[in-house]
Design brief:
heterodimer, A: mainly alpha, 2 domains, 12 helices, 76% helix, 0% strand, B: mainly alpha, 3 domains, 4 helices, flat
Chain lengths: 247, 111
C-alpha cells in the first residue's frame, strides 16, 4: 500500500490499545494534511472578520470542511440566512449514508446510545474512509474507540490549523489562501483513492464523480442529495447485475 | 441583535443542520444489517455522494476557487495525483504538490 509509511498494526489487544492506535494513526499524514486544509479555513475566517473562538467552535461542532468553507464564504457575500443554512446543509448530505454504513460495524454490547451518538458526530471523510477499510481487521469491540480516538487526533490538528490560519491570514496573499482552500479537494481525491479498495466503493466513486457536475448544473442546490443518490443507485444496479451474472 | 450574536446563532444552526445528517444516519443504522442489500445500497450512495462533492468542487467550485480556471485546477490535481502515485501513495507529498502547483500555475499566469 503506502510505501512511505510503516504498515499499521492489524488488530488491537484491548480497548485502550485501540484508543492509542487510533490516535497514533491519526497523528501522522492524516492530521498534517487535514490540519493544513483547516489553515485555509482559518485564513478565510480571519479575512471575513469572524472571531477566532467562533471559528474554533465551528471546527468542533460542524467538523466538515466544505460546509464550514461554504458558511464563511456565503456569509461574507451577504447571502440570505435561510439560503445559507440550506446550502450548508446540502453540502453535508453525505453524512447520512456514511453514518448508516459505518455505525453498524461498531455494534458491540459494551457500547450504548451516547457512545454511538458521539461516534456519529465524529463521522467525516478521513476517519470514515480509513475505518471502512481498517474496521473489519479488528475486533468489533475495538472499532468504536479506534474511530473516536482517530477523530480526536484529527481534531487537535484541525483546531491548531484553524488557529494558525486565523492569525496568519493577514500575512497570506489571496493566492496563498486559494492554494490552501484547494488542499481540501485534492486531499479528498487522494485519500479516497488510497483507502477505497472494495468494488462497491470504486464503482460508486466513479458514478458519483461523473454525475456530480452535470447534475449540479441542472439543480445546484439539490445536486449532492439528488446526484449522490442517483449515482449511488446506478452503481448499486451495476454491481447487483454483475453479481447476478457472475452467479 | 448584533452581527456577532447573529453569526453565533447561524453557526449553531449550521452545526445542528450538519448533525441532522449524522444523527439521521445513526437512526437509520439500526435498520441496517451488515451483509444485507441495504448496506450495499447505502455504501454506494455514500461513496457516490463523496465523489460528487469532490468532483463538483473541482469542476464547478463556488467562492475563492472560482477565481481559478478549470484547466489550472485540473493540471494541479493531475500533478498531485502523479506525485502521490509515484511516491507509493504518499498523501502528504501529493496534497502539498496540489496546493503548491495551483499557486505556481496561477502566479505564472499573472506574472
Amino acid at each position: 500500500m503506502s510505501g512511505a509509511e510503516a504498515a499499521p498494526p492489524r488488530g488491537f489487544a484491548s480497548v485502550r490499545g485501540a484508543l492509542r492506535g487510533g490516535l497514533r494513526e491519526a497523528l501522522g499524514a492524516p492530521a498534517l494534511v487535514l490540519g493544513a486544509g483547516y489553515v485555509g479555513f482559518g485564513a478565510l475566517a480571519g479575512d471575513a472578520g469572524i472571531s477566532p473562538l467562533l471559528a474554533l467552535v465551528s471546527t468542533l461542532l460542524i467538523f466538515a470542511l466544505p460546509a464550514q468553507i461554504a458558511m464563511v464564504e456565503m456569509w461574507q457575500l451577504g447571502t440570505a440566512l435561510p439560503a445559507l443554512v440550506l446550502a450548508v446543509m446540502m453540502t453535508s448530505t453525505r453524512f447520512l449514508p456514511m453514518a448508516a454504513t459505518l455505525l453498524p460495524q461498531m455494534r458491540h454490547p459494551r457500547w450504548s446510545g451516547r457512545h454511538y451518538t458521539f461516534a456519529a458526530h465524529c463521522i467525516a471523510m478521513t476517519g470514515w474512509a480509513i475505518a471502512m477499510r481498517r474496521g473489519p481487521e479488528m475486533a468489533a469491540e475495538h472499532r468504536l474507540p479506534y474511530f473516536c480516538a482517530f477523530t480526536m487526533g484529527l481534531w487537535v490538528a484541525c483546531l491548531a490549523g484553524t488557529t494558525a490560519g486565523f492569525y496568519l491570514s493577514g500575512l497570506f496573499s489571496e493566492l496563498l489562501t486559494v492554494g490552501l482552500v484547494f488542499l481540501n479537494p485534492v486531499y479528498f481525491i487522494l485519500i479516497l483513492l488510497r483507502e477505497t479498495r472494495s468494488r462497491v466503493g470504486v464503482t460508486a466513486l466513479l458514478c458519483g464523480a461523473v454525475l456530480g457536475p452535470p447534475v449540479h448544473l441542472m439543480i445546484p442546490e439539490w445536486s449532492l442529495i439528488v446526484g449522490g443518490t442517483l449515482a449511488g443507485l446506478i452503481a448499486f444496479g451495476i454491481l447487483e447485475a454483475g453479481a447476478r451474472r457472475g452467479g | 441583535m448584533g452581527a456577532e450574536t447573529e453569526l453565533w446563532l447561524l453557526m449553531l444552526v449550521c452545526a445542528a443542520a450538519t448533525f441532522a445528517w449524522r444523527g439521521g444516519g445513526l437512526w437509520l443504522s439500526r435498520a441496517v444489517s451488515l451483509d444485507g442489500p441495504l448496506m450495499r445500497l447505502l455504501a454506494c450512495i455514500a461513496y457516490a455522494t463523496l465523489a460528487a462533492l469532490v468532483s463538483r468542487i473541482v469542476f464547478l467550485p463556488a467562492g475563492m476557487l472560482e477565481t481559478t480556471a478549470l484547466w489550472e485546477r485540473l493540471l494541479a490535481a493531475g500533478l498531485a495525483l502523479g506525485v502521490f502515485l509515484a511516491l507509493g501513495m504518499n498523501l502528504l507529498a501529493g496534497v502539498v504538490t496540489g496546493g503548491a502547483a495551483l499557486i505556481l500555475i496561477v502566479a505564472l499566469q499573472g506574472g
